[in-house]
Design a protein that fits this description.
Radius of gyration: 16 Å
Structural class: alpha+beta
Distance between the termini: 39 Å
Strand content: 5-15%
Order of helices and strands: EHHEH
């Protein structure tokens, strides 16, 4: 049975160092598993849909996102109790 796979916000701004919204080296760990999943799903005839938003550099939301990302604390995984 074919599926639909949604890939959300896999954009260079989050995944590559030097971009204003880069989330850190840990993001690189998900790239290869996603590539494998997409190849497997394509071979099954599944549809692949990529979703992301886009902002012009002069839009207020674009400037806000850069500020928010740079000021945001690093997330930590909590270990199970």
């Amino acid at each position: 049975m074919a599926n639909v796979v949604l890939v959300v916000d896999m954009v260079r701004g989050f995944c590559e160092e030097g971009h204003p919204l880069y989330v850190g080296e840990s993001i690189r760990r998900i790239i290869e598993p996603i590539r494998r999943l997409l190849a497997e799903e394509r071979s099954r005839g599944s549809s692949i849909i990529f979703l992301c938003d886009n902002h012009a550099p002069d839009e207020p939301s674009s400037r806000c996102s850069r500020l928010t990302a740079s000021a945001a604390p690093k997330r930590r995984r909590s270990s199970p109790s």
